[in-house]
Design a protein that fits this description.
Strand content: 5-15%
Radius of gyration: 22 Å
Helix content: 25-40%
CATH topology of the domain at 32-60 and 147-415: Alkaline Phosphatase, subunit A
Oligomer: single chain
């Protein structure tokens, strides 16, 4: 009988998808194995998630296997290459840490299918064939990688905490479908972003609320991605969305970390679009400079290390999807509630580092994807006395939780101040170089490149506008207050608009 019900459920999901409807979210509870990993996870009181944008594992952390160390990372090896039109495109170290818009690789569902075809042999071909301007096809940046010199914060974290070299994005597709998996455990019937990318999928924060757990969604600007994912829950999220950093709020991320008042779950949105904040984009989505992302990660790490809650905090650092950059590991198959075959595979690997005083340092080869974040939060903060956790669908149920990386006792010493100060000095030099470059451009009267949003930034701004313009005046006022805008120099909630200023 259970098998029959499951069959009817899958058929209903299939026919719903044909008519553009999203299957109803599962309800009820499921079992989770109660073992040493759960006991270790129970020592964690705060889970902090920072999900950046569009880089593959080999692109950002694959260099670790090219250097002598004891990390046992499944990364790049000399001689790896893609072939196209009779020419070999080998892996190579990138010299520039920022791209131009024309170099942003394709990462639609169709493009990813081509990239992973032939044993992940199609990255170079897809990049070259999808360039609107043939001149931007060289160099083939998707075969490039960075190393510890360009990514000093990741190098620091990788050698002290846990690198996950089997963390795959959840689907072979674009940003929002993968972020849907990270928050709702499923996509919305497509591997590409909706237009505009706003959705009605019940997210895991509903389960946190039902269990009485605390959570915050920290944002760099006037919009939070949870608003685009779970629009039907919008009014109930205002009390939990806060600024990442704000002189007008005592409840931003840094204030909470400093006082030891972090919530059970803290999700951080990076700054996705330059017009959304004073500091510029730091989400690592090309063409953003990856050193801006390093600066963001360091700020988060330092705040947590200095927090009185450090020894009971788990930092999860990962990326929504691979962004079209080369990775040599083929995506494995996956369980899913959507019956269509394209949803029964993970996407390519993405960078993932788990940092905690209780993590086993080194490299984990356990299989994870973005639904592992949900599984971890449910297992830690929504587990009932009978050991059951909320059912959020096949993908979440099959996911490994991050407790398997932990021990009950402290394993890693608090990072020393001198090491963190050294990282600050390295990034300060980058800031100085960037300023010098800007001064040189101005002195030489070189006209700046016209401001142009990437395809993702355009989608993000469309979601932002659609959600903010749908708010009632009272909802706008409540959201403005939550984000510390009331009484600010922007004129309070009057400046809270869906359109960029």
């Amino acid at each position: 009988m259970r098998a029959v019900r499951a069959l009817f459920s899958r058929l209903a999901s299939f026919f719903s998808s044909l008519f553009g409807r999203t299957p109803d979210a599962p309800s009820g509870f499921v079992e989770i194995e109660l073992d040493d990993s759960i006991e270790a996870l129970d020592e964690i009181e705060h889970i902090v998630v920072l999900m950046l944008e569009n880089r593959s594992f080999d692109h950002m952390l694959g260099y670790l296997s090219l250097e002598p160390n004891e990390l046992d990372v499944d990364g790049l090896q000399a001689g790896m290459a893609n072939e196209y039109a009779g020419r070999s495109y080998p892996i190579s170290k990138l010299e520039r840490t920022a791209f131009i818009k024309a170099q942003d690789p394709c990462h639609s569902g169709e493009c990813v299918d081509r990239q992973v075809a032939g044993g992940n042999g199609g990255f170079a071909a897809d990049f070259i064939e999808t360039r609107a301007d043939p001149a931007s096809a060289e160099p083939v940046v998707v075969m490039g990688y960075y190393d510890g010199e360009q990514l000093p914060v990741y190098d620091f974290l990788a050698r002290r905490f846990c690198v996950c070299d089997r963390w795959f994005c959840s689907v072979k597709g674009a940003t929002f479908p993968n972020r849907l998996y990270a928050a709702a455990g499923r996509a919305a019937g497509s591997r590409d972003n909706a237009s505009p990318p706003t959705y009605h999928l019940p997210s895991f924060v509903r389960r946190l609320d039902a269990a009485g757990a605390t959570w915050r969604w920290y944002t760099h600007e006037l919009f939070a991605t949870i608003w685009a994912i779970d629009r039907d829950y919008l009014p109930k999220t205002f009390g939990n969305v806060r600024p990442f950093s704000s002189p007008f709020s005592s409840e931003d991320f840094f204030s909470a970390a400093k006082s030891g008042a972090l919530p059970d779950v803290a999700w951080i949105d990076p700054n996705f679009v330059d017009v959304g904040g004073a500091a510029g984009s730091n989400d690592d989505h090309p063409p953003s400079d990856v050193r801006a992302g390093q600066e963001l990660v360091l700020r988060v790490l330092n705040a947590l290390v200095e927090s009185p809650a450090w020894e009971r905090t788990l930092l999860v650092l990962t990326y929504d999807e691979h962004g079209g950059f080369f990775d040599h590991v083929e995506p494995p198959s996956a369980d899913d509630d959507d019956p269509r075959p394209e949803f029964h595979s993970y996407g390519p690997r993405v960078p993932a580092i788990v940092a905690s005083a209780r993590v086993r340092a080194g490299t984990s080869h356990e299989l994870f994807d973005h639904t592992s974040i949900i599984k971890t939060c449910l297992a830690r903060f929504c587990r009932r006395e009978d050991g059951l956790i909320p059912d959020m669908g096949a993908r979440v149920n099959a996911a490994n939780h991050l407790g398997v990386l932990l021990e009950k006792d402290v394993q890693v010493a608090r990072p020393e101040n001198a090491a963190l100060e050294g990282l600050v000095a390295e990034l300060r030099r980058w800031r100085a170089e960037s300023l010098q470059e800007e001064v040189t451009v101005q002195r030489d009267a070189v006209p700046p490149d016209p401001a142009a949003l990437t395809d993702f930034q355009e989608d993000y701004m469309a979601a932002r506008e659609a959600v903010l313009d749908s708010m009632t005046p009272s909802e706008r006022a409540e959201a403005a207050k939550a984000l510390g805008m009331t009484g600010a120099s922007s004129g309070g909630s009057a400046g809270f608009s869906g359109r960029p200023r």
